[in-house]
Amino acid sequence: MANNPPPDDGSLRYVPDGPKISVLPGHTPDYSHATFCIEEEDHTLGNALRWMIMKKCVLFPASWLRGKGPNEGYSPKVEFCGYSMPHPSEYKINLRIQMYDNHSSLTALQQALRQLDDLAATIEEKYNASLEGEQWEQGQDGEMTLEGAKRFAQEAGRKKEREAMEL
Amino acid sequence: MEKIELSRLVQLHPERVSHVSSTDYPGHWPGEDHTWDLEVFRHNLRLDIQRLTPSTIDFDLIGVDASIANALRRILIAEVETIAIEKVFVWQNTSVMQDEVLAARLGLVPLRIHPGRLETWQPEATATDANTISFQLQVSCTRRPNVSSAETDPSKLYENSTVYSSHMIWQPVGQQGHLPDWVSDPPAVAAPDIVLLKLRPGQEVHAELHCVKACGREHAKWSPVATATYRLMPHIDIVSPVPERLQQKFVESFSPGVIGRRKGQGGKGMEVYVKDARRDTVSRNVFMHPEFEGVVKLGRVRDHFLFSVESAGQIPPQALLPEAIAVFRRKIKVVSSALEELIHPTAAAEEGEKEAADGEEREDGGMDVDL
């Protein structure tokens, strides 16, 4: 793949080579082993996606598999998943997925994206619950004045004395 | 102290760390299922806001992998969009500060403007009221009349001897001055007392400042945080009692407030206990003393992240994480729909691909595989 020329305005902005996501040459015909190139993404999505793909990709829900016979639910469907940024100045990642038993890596990637979205929604849900719960400590921002610094030092000194007394 | 399963601990030894990587994958442990299950995740996930101030938020995120916590941190720093000064048109500047230095400085001034009010700036765009906010900076310094000749303080001698961020005045353009949201809460600087430059009598500065929306990846001035960090929760396990004569020394081997002393069980003598592991800096000083060998086990909880996020002023601290999550979900959606397009190309895209294929030979065949 030839790199697109840099933009005319003299900036070093990265111009994507192709579509947002593509399959690199060398995949198996059934896409059980494939490398995806995702444009304009980095470690932020790459590592999270790698974890999510390795995490499950059992093609049935875990609850269905539980108790379905010895170790059936425990067998991973992913042989390997890893990602790399080919070069720091190229804003893209290559994501390699190898599946067992001719499972499709496309399906695995689709599922992982959906599950990552569920995960993000769950974190937000919990965050909002915690915010509404109002169990946090309400603090004030420190003022960075000389008087403030002196007061802080005095208070720290007193606190240290108190702690020494406690011991 | 809360009992933590050994598998969740990164163990810290005097000269090395062990059990660093997470192992919660299917097939890693015999007889253990680690398949992704949303309900299990929801059950184990905890998010506790610990402290909130006008500019900072501290929260605990428990039960996620480092890759997720790191994704959130990276998005907070580099991908949540805000509005900052991008172009400075200098009409007059007779101060000692060069135009380019002044412009670079102005860019870093945090602006308290809801990012939703503007469209993201596109590289080749022209400035319109939908993607640009304009500020005016026009200050000239003059001598104050009737000041004692013994006075040496420039702020008393001269009018406008210091130019502050509050001298930047919003100039509504196009529709902006008629929108109720904008009128009730006009664009302003996040802090009014940022010193921009200093002037002396006869000097003046007059500039037009164009602000656009972009993200921290482009330039740090658009980053809404200063900064977002996390660390892992320290874990201290006192495995055998510390004799009373050594307790003072033991307490002092940790950060203040980490270890406490109380009446021992059975009412005899004093014992040490872990009061607040969160306050420990994990200096591991306790390992320096041979008398404490084998007394304590140190570790960090691998999936317990203590986030500490400081807002730079553009977005209130409690709104930062929801913004980051929204960005994360948008990123996922973009990749998802691109993947969908790759597997089942729509007619419009096929047209486009055909045109592209005419120009150069395609390396990769069509996606005609049964899934």
Automatic annotation (TrEMBL), chain A:
Q: Some GO term, biological process aspect, for this entry: which one?
A: transcription by RNA polymerase III
Provide the protein name: RBP11-like subunits of RNA polymerase
What does the organism's lineage look like at the top? Eukaryota, Fungi, Dikarya, Basidiomycota, Agaricomycotina
* Gene Ontology molecular function: any one: protein dimerization activity
Q: Which domain of life is it from?
A: Eukaryota
Q: Which InterPro entries match?
A: RBP11-like, RBP11-like_dimer, RNAP_AC19
The UniProt entry, under Pfam families, shows: RNA_pol_L_2 (PF13656)
Can you supply one Gene Ontology CC term for this chain's record?
RNA polymerase III complex
UniProtKB/TrEMBL annotation, chain B:
Keyword list, A-Z:
DNA-directed RNA polymerase, Nucleus, Transcription
Residue stretches of biased makeup (Acidic residues): 360-371
* Superkingdom field: Eukaryota
Q: Which Pfam families match?
A: RNA_pol_L (PF01193)
Which parts of the sequence belong to the DNA-directed RNA polymerase RpoA/D/Rpb3-type domain? 56-338
Give the subcellular location: Nucleus
Q: Does the keyword section mention Transcription?
A: yes
Q: Does the keyword Transit peptide apply?
A: no
What SMART domains does the record point to? Answer: RPOLD (SM00662)
The protein's matches in Gene3D superfamilies, at most eight in alphabetical order, are given as: DNA-directed RNA polymerase, insert domain, RNA polymerase, RBP11-like subunit
Which GO terms of the molecular function aspect are on file?
A: DNA binding; DNA-directed RNA polymerase activity; protein dimerization activity
Which residues does the annotated region (Disordered) include? Answer: 346-371
GO CC entries: nuclear DNA-directed RNA polymerase complex; RNA polymerase I complex; RNA polymerase III complex
Family matches, as InterPro entries: DNA-dir_RNA_pol_30-40kDasu_CS (IPR001514), DNA-dir_RNA_pol_RpoA/D/Rpb3 (IPR011263), RBP11-like (IPR036603), RNAP_Rpo3/Rpb3/RPAC1 (IPR022842), RNAPI/III_AC40 (IPR033901), RNApol_insert_sf (IPR036643), Rpo3/RPB3_RNA_Pol_subunit (IPR050518)
Just give the chief location class: nucleus
Any GO BP? DNA-templated transcription
* Family of this protein: Belongs to the archaeal Rpo3/eukaryotic RPB3 RNA polymerase subunit family.
Q: Could you tell me what this protein is called?
A: DNA-directed RNA polymerases I and III subunit RPAC1
